[in-house]
Amino acid sequence: MLIGYLRGRAGDEGSLHAQRKALADAGGEQVVEDLAAGRRWEQPELRRALDALQAGDVVVVTQLDRLGRTLAEVVRRVQRIIAAGAGLRSLKEGIDTTTEAGRAAVQVIGNLAALDRGAARDNINAGLAAARAEGRRGGRRPKLSEQQRMLIADEVLAGAWFKKCHFQVTPKIDKALVVKRFLVLGVTLS
User: Structurally, how many domains does the chain consist of?
Assistant: First the structure.
């Protein structure tokens, strides 16, 4: 069975109509649609269609990026389709995994995705190393200035802080007291 899949934004009728027409012209017997609202790109209909795939079915898309937002996600979905014994046909790219050339194209795309992930990881690590070499470190900027940290230490060591808090005896110093006194979040002190 030829299963057409289209994805688009709710209200973008021009794109949706063009996809529907292309899938119908390709012979899609059943068309599955996922419409996004806002930033949400969940694809529940695609997941259901992939769960129901049987050997010999062919999923038809207008272009490969309809299957996911990232190259890695597209490759995972293509591999899932192939693992189910089904085929994939992408109209724009001319890829058809029911042919040898189409299967080879998918392998090349998978290798490019792996290369892309590796390059991204290498770039991130190189950037972090360069930042460390310049004396910078990642993460959130400190909420307390050096002066505020010194004030906390001075007040704690002098016991003045506890007198302000009306303690009769010097209690165990804990994070909750510092949070209350300096109006900062507890994670700031971690």
Answer: 2
